[in-house]
C-alpha cells in the first residue's frame, strides 16, 4: 500500500525543489533596478487611486452575507435536481420544507430592514 | 418514499420538529411585533413547553430512527428534559438582563432555541455525522450568543475567542472521527462497537481516541483545554454564560458517553486511563484557580471546570451506577449553577455591572431571599448536606469506589473541601459585610420564579433524592444496552 504513494512523494520533492531552485537561482542572477511604478501593487494594470485600507459601509457586509446564505441554497438544489426522478413526491416535499425555512429567514431579514440601503 | 425512510422516522423526531417549527414561528412573530416587546418571552416559553409535551409519547421507547442516525431512548430523553429545563430557566432570567443592556429579544431567543435543538440532537445521536451536526448547531448559536451585547467590547472578545478556539477544537475532533471512520468503515457508533470486537490493539485507533477525547474535553471545558472558559464566561452576557455552562456541558457529556461507551467499549482501557488523569487534573486546577478570583463569573467558570472534573469520575467508573450518578449530578448541577447565575443577573442594574465579589456585599440586608438562594446554591456547589449537591457527590464518589477507583474518590473529596473556601467567601460577603454598592437590586417576577424553582429543586433533591434515582438508573441502562457494550461490561 505504501508503494502506491511513491509517485506522490516524488512529486512533492520535485515541486518543492523546483520552487526553492527558482527562488535561489533568480535571486543570484537578476539585476536590481527598482522604480516607483515597479513597486506599486498591481491591479489589472490600472494605477491605484487611493489607499487600499479604506472604510466602507457595514451594509456591504450585510448584503454580502445575505448573498452567501441564499446562494448556498442553490448548491443544495443542484444535486437534488439531478436525482429528482428517484426522489419524486417525497423529495419535492423535503425541498419545499427546506425552501420554506429559507423564506422565513428571508422574510425576517426583509422586515428587519436588512435589505434597505441607508 | 425512498428506501430506508418511513413516516415513523418523522414521528420519532417530533420533539425536534416542534422545536424547529416553534423557532421559525418566533422569528415571524418577532418581525411583526414592535422592537422590545415582552410577548416574545412568552412565545419562547410556549415553544419550550410544547417541545416538552411532545416528549411525553416517547417516555418508554427505545428505537433507532433515520437509518441509525438517532436513537430515541431513555438516555436521550433524560438529557432532553435537562436541556429544556435549562433553556426555560435561561429564558426567564434573560428578559430583565436584555432590557438593562438594551439588546433585542427576537434573535436572542431564536438562538437559544437553536442551541437547544442542537443539544437535543447531540444527546440522541448514535452516529458520528449526526452528533457532529448537532454539536455545530449548538456551537454556532453559542458563538453568536456570546457576542450578543454588541457595544460591549468584552462580549465581542468572548465571541471571537470562543469561535476561534471552538473551530480549532472541532477540527481536532473531526480528525479523530475521520480516523475512526477510516479504521472501522462506518460512522454508526453501534456498528463500530461490533466491528472492533476482537480487533487487536491498533495504534491508529489509540490516536483517534486521543484526538476525540481532546475535542470533547474542549467542549466540556476540562483541563488542559479549559483556557477559553474563564474569558468567555466572563465576557458573555450572564444568562448566556449560565446556559453555556449547563446546557453545552451536559450535551457534550451526553455525546461523549455515546461515543465512548456505545462506540468504543473495546478501547475502554485506553480512554479510561485518559479520563482518569484528566479528571484529577481538571478538579485540582479548577478549584485552585477559583480560589483567587474576585470576579463572580470567572470564579463560577473555574468552579464549572472543577465540576467537569467531578463528572468525569462517572465516565471513568463507566458502570451503569457511575453513569446514572453522573446523570443525576448533571441535573443537580444545572439547577444550582443556573440559580447562582440568576442571582448575578439580578445584580446587574443600570448603574452596577454586578459581577464582582464586592458587589454582593450586604446583599442580605437588601434582598434577603436572593441572599438565601445564593447561600443554598453555594452550599450545594460545595457539597454540604442537606442540599442536592451533597447527594450528587455522594453517589458519584460512591460509584467510583464501587468500580475500584478509591483514590479518585479521595481526590474528589479533598477538592470539595478546597472549593468550600471560595463558595463560602461569597456567603461571608453577602451576610457579614455591611457596606453596599449602587442602587437597590430588585427581583422581577420571572427572576423570582427562576430562583424559587432552583432553590426548591436543590433542597428537595437533597432531602428526597429517590425521586430521581430510578429515572437516572433506567436512562443509564439504556445506554449501550444493545449487544456489545453490555457483553464487555
Account of the protein in words:
The complex is a heterodimer of chains A (118) and B (489). The mean pLDDT of chain A is 86. Chain A is built from 4 helices and no strands. In chain A, 68% of the residues lie in helices and 0% in strands. The relative contact order of chain A is 0.06. Chain A has a single domain, classed as Methane Monooxygenase Hydroxylase, Chain G, domain 1 (Up-down Bundle), CATH 1.20.58. Chain A has 118 residues and is an all-alpha fold. In chain A, α3 packs antiparallel against α4. The radius of gyration of chain A is 26 Å and the shape is flat. Chain B is an all-alpha fold. Chain B has one domain. Helix content of chain B is 76%, strand content 1%. Chain B has a two-stranded antiparallel sheet. In chain B, α4 runs antiparallel to α5, α7 crosses α10 and α17 runs antiparallel to α18. The longest helix of chain B has 32 residues. In chain B, 57% of the residues are buried. The interface between A and B is small, with 11 and 10 residues.
Which tags fit this structure?
heterodimer, A: mainly alpha, Methane Monooxygenase Hydroxylase, Chain G, domain 1, B: 489 residues, two-stranded antiparallel sheet, 76% helix
> In percent, how much strand structure appears in the residues of chain A?
under 5%
Query: What string, H for helix and E for strand, traces the elements of chain B in order?
Result: HHHEEHHHHHHHHHHHHHHHHHH
The oligomeric state of the chains shown is: heterodimer
Instruction: Report the major sheet of chain A.
Output: none
- What is the CA–CA distance across the termini of chain A? 61 Å
Biggest sheet: strand arrangement of chain B: 1-2
Low-confidence stretches of chain A: none
- Rg on CA atoms of chain A, Å: 26 Å
Cα distance spanning the termini of chain B: 40 Å
Number of helices of chain B: 21
Question: Rg of chain B, please?
Answer: 21 Å
Q: How many separate helices of chain A? A: 4
Amino acid at each position: 500500500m505504501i508503494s502506491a504513494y511513491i509517485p506522490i512523494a516524488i512529486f512533492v520533492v520535485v515541486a518543492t525543489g523546483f520552487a526553492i531552485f527558482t527562488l535561489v537561482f533568480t535571486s543570484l542572477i537578476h539585476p536590481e533596478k527598482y522604480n516607483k511604478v515597479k513597486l506599486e501593487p498591481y491591479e489589472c494594470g490600472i494605477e491605484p487611486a487611493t489607499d487600499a485600507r479604506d472604510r466602507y459601509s457595514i451594509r456591504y457586509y450585510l448584503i454580502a452575507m445575505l448573498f452567501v446564505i441564499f446562494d448556498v441554497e442553490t448548491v443544495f438544489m443542484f444535486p437534488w435536481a439531478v436525482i429528482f426522478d428517484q426522489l419524486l413526491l417525497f423529495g419535492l416535499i423535503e425541498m419545499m420544507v427546506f425552501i420554506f425555512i429559507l423564506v422565513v429567514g428571508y422574510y425576517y431579514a426583509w422586515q428587519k430592514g436588512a435589505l434597505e440601503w441607508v | 418514499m425512498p428506501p430506508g425512510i418511513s413516516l415513523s422516522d418523522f414521528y420519532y423526531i417530533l420533539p425536534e420538529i416542534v422545536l424547529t417549527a416553534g423557532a421559525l414561528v418566533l422569528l415571524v412573530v418577532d418581525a411583526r411585533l414592535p422592537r422590545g416587546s415582552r410577548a416574545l418571552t412568552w412565545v419562547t416559553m410556549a415553544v419550550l413547553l410544547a417541545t416538552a409535551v411532545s416528549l411525553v409519547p416517547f417516555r418508554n421507547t427505545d428505537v433507532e430512527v433515520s437509518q441509525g442516525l438517532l436513537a430515541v431512548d431513555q438516555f436521550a430523553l433524560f438529557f432532553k428534559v435537562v436541556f429544556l429545563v435549562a433553556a426555560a430557566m435561561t429564558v426567564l432570567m434573560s428578559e430583565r438582563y436584555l432590557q438593562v443592556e438594551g439588546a433585542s429579544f427576537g434573535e436572542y431567543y431564536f438562538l437559544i432555541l437553536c442551541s437547544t435543538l442542537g443539544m437535543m440532537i447531540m444527546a440522541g445521536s448514535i452516529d458520528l455525522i449526526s452528533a457532529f451536526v448537532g454539536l455545530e448547531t449548538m456551537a454556532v448559536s453559542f458563538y453568536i450568543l456570546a457576542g450578543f451585547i454588541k457595544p460591549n467590547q468584552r462580549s465581542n472578545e468572548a465571541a471571537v475567542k470562543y469561535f476561534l478556539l471552538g473551530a480549532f477544537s472541532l477540527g481536532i475532533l473531526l480528525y479523530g472521527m475521520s480516523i475512526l471512520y477510516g479504521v472501522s468503515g462506518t460512522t454508526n457508533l453501534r456498528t463500530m462497537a461490533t466491528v472492533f470486537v476482537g480487533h487487536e490493539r491498533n495504534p491508529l485507533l489509540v490516536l483517534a481516541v486521543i484526538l476525540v477525547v481532546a475535542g470533547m474535553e474542549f467542549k466540556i471545558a476540562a483541563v488542559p483545554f479549559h483556557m477559553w472558559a474563564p474569558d468567555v464566561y466572563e465576557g458573555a452576557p450572564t444568562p448566556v454564560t449560565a446556559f453555556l455552562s449547563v446546557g453545552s456541558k451536559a450535551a457534550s457529556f451526553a455525546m461523549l458517553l455515546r461515543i465512548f461507551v456505545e462506540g468504543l467499549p473495546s478501547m475502554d482501557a485506553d480512554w479510561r486511563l485518559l479520563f482518569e488523569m484528566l479528571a484529577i487534573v481538571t478538579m485540582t486546577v479548577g478549584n485552585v484557580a477559583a480560589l483567587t478570583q474576585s470576579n463572580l463569573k470567572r470564579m463560577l467558570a473555574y468552579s464549572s471546570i472543577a465540576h467537569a472534573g467531578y463528572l468525569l469520575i462517572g465516565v471513568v467508573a463507566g458502570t451503569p451506577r457511575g453513569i446514572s450518578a453522573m446523570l443525576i449530578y448533571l441535573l443537580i448541577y444545572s439547577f444550582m449553577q443556573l440559580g447562582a447565575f440568576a442571582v448575578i443577573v439580578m445584580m446587574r442594574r443600570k448603574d452596577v455591572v454586578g459581577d464582582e465579589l464586592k458587589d454582593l456585599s450586604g446583599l442580605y440586608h437588601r434582598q434577603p431571599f436572593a441572599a438565601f438562594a445564593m447561600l443554598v446554591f453555594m452550599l450545594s456547589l460545595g457539597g454540604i448536606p442537606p442540599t442536592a449537591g451533597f447527594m450528587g457527590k455522594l453517589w458519584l464518589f460512591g460509584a467510583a469506589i464501587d468500580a475500584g477507583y478509591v483514590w479518585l474518590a479521595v481526590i474528589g473529596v479533598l477538592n470539595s473541601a478546597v472549593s468550600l473556601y471560595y463558595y463560602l467567601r461569597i456567603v461571608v460577603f453577602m451576610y457579614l459585610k455591611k457596606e453596599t454598592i449602587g442602587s437597590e437590586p430588585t427581583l422581577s417576577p420571572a427572576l423570582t420564579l427562576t430562583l424559587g424553582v432552583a432553590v426548591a429543586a436543590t433542597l428537595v433533591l437533597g432531602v428526597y433524592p429517590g425521586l430521581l434515582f430510578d429515572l437516572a438508573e433506567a436512562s443509564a441502562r439504556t445506554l449501550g444496552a444493545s449487544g456489545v457494550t453490555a457483553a464487555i461490561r
